[in-house]
Specification:
Radius of gyration: 20 Å
Order of helices and strands: HHHH
Number of helices: 4
Mean pLDDT: 75
Structural class: mainly alpha
CATH topology of the largest domain: F1FO ATP Synthase
Number of strands: 0
Length: 111
């Protein structure tokens, strides 16, 4: 798992390093007017950001609910004490996904 994460970060850093080589030309194009590449980047960022936020949020919520169900199955008397923190945790996880949805709408508005 760690190896996959390191490969992912190496890939992302390579993409950003290659992108910085064209940054000066792209900055001139953006300053002159809205370029197609900038619009593509905004659309790609909005779509990927929202997709990743939804996927990671869903994984986190699933893990939280699974842990709560395991805790309740081990100690059924504690279900009353576990309910409110579980619901609050799920709400906070979902709020992060909703924040990304708002950011995606702002990015789409710039296209």
């Amino acid at each position: 798992m760690i190896k996959r994460i390191l490969v992912f970060f190496a890939f992302v850093s390579a993409v950003f390093a290659a992108d910085s080589a064209f940054a000066a030309e792209e900055a001139v194009a953006i300053a002159a007017g809205s370029s197609e590449l900038a619009k593509f980047g905004l659309a790609l960022g909005a779509g990927l950001g929202l997709g990743l936020a939804a996927a990671i949020g869903a994984l986190g919520q699933g893990k939280a609910v699974a842990a709560a169900m395991e805790g309740i199955s081990r100690n059924p008397n504690a279900s009353d004490k576990m309910f409110l923190p579980l619901i609050l945790g799920l709400v906070f996880m979902e709020s992060l996904v909703i924040y990304m949805l708002v950011v995606a709408f702002f990015l789409q508005g710039k296209i």
